């Protein structure tokens, strides 16, 4: 006769089997939460952030290059304007000198005739 106080061999085996199943159940993979369809993974999000950063840096680089070229063009234009102004001043001086020489020659001719 078997009583609840002193279980038999079969009861111990079944209890042991249940305990083993419970122990193994802890190690079974649990059902993971599935992301909704179309949701981005962490890697995809990081890739998008990297691409956005690359794009921003490329745009900044292009903008800086344009500014540098604009400044270079402006410096070249101002240098050209300075050279042209100096050339114009030189021409004006030569023109005045020639006009003065002509006037002097004209006055000398008039004095000779008179």
Low-confidence stretches: none
Radius of gyration: 50 Å
Tell me the structural class.
Answer: mainly alpha
Helix share bin: over 70%
Query: Which H/E pattern describes the elements?
Result: HH
Approximate strand percentage: under 5%
- What composes the largest sheet? none
**What's the count of strands?**
0
| Average pLDDT reading | 90
Q: What is the count of DSSP helices, taking H or I runs of 4+ residues?
A: 2
List the SSEs and their pairings.
Blueprint: H1 9-27, H2 42-113
Explain what this protein looks like in three dimensions:
This protein is mainly α and 114 residues long. Helices cover 80% and strands 0% of the residues. The chain has 2 helices and no strands. It has helices spanning 9-27, 42-113. The chain is rod-shaped and about 160 Å long.
